Description:
B: 141 residues
Amino acid sequence: xxxxxxxxxxxxxxxLLYLILGILHPDKTVAALWTSLGVxxxxxxxxxxxxxxxxxxxxxxxxxxxxxxxxxxxxLKGWFLALFGGxxxxxxxxxxxxLLQNLREQGAKDGLIVAFVYARAIKIPWIPLMIxxxxxxxxxxxxxxxxxxxxxxxxxxxxxxxx
Amino acid sequence: xxxxxxxxxxxxxxxxxMIAPMLLAIIGLIGLFKTYITPEMLRTLFNGSALHDMxxxxxxxxxxxxxxxxxxxxxxxxxxxxxxxxxxTAFILAFVTLGVVQxxxxxxxxxxxxxxVRNLLSLLFSFVLAFLIAFCVRMFA
Lengths: 163, 141
């Protein structure tokens, strides 16, 4: 992972934004702060899980295994792993970024990472709600095209970013 | 083995420390967006024509943040208010696959080129898939 100061700069900008909005709309801004704390509380367990997975990955899986399962030679199995993993992963996308970057650094194909991220548009726990709002037809058609789209996007990205 | 685990744990802590400021910044922004951009504000922008609704849907889906179920609820309400399936699908897709708010984090973790290509492709696919999904739904329904 690249070390840079953009995180600190960004945090400074957001703090400044809160300060300005806090002066203009104190009630709303305090509500926003509480919302943020709620989000933080929600993602901490997921974050710990992701970082634990990263640690396991570093200890038990060597680069050869990654490149076999997700590297240039991974073929269909690699696509299947990426799409299935994306569908099953839960929590906000940004929580997964460090783990995915770790996989890239160990030799995983860029296309597979892109496919993983897009396949996350399918959220298994929320499927019943989608059916309630939009019906079975929509849910099935949506799921089908998102999987196809994630795969196509991975292929295009792989061509564009060939390592 | 013990040493390996220890090294992994310290590596994990190091990467956690490295992304902490950006993560906190993004979470702070999410709170602001959730509070300041309301579903009512989104609802007034859709007018029912496919292309217009798709553009608005992708635009607002891309800048909105939150749990995916929010996009279903807002999408369902928009549909009731007369927005087209094209626009609502584009909104849901952009909501869950694009994140303008978390872009700086994506750039800093993956690097500029990867993040740019991924986001441009997701943007393009929000339109393409929204069209295909809405078209198929109309055909089957």
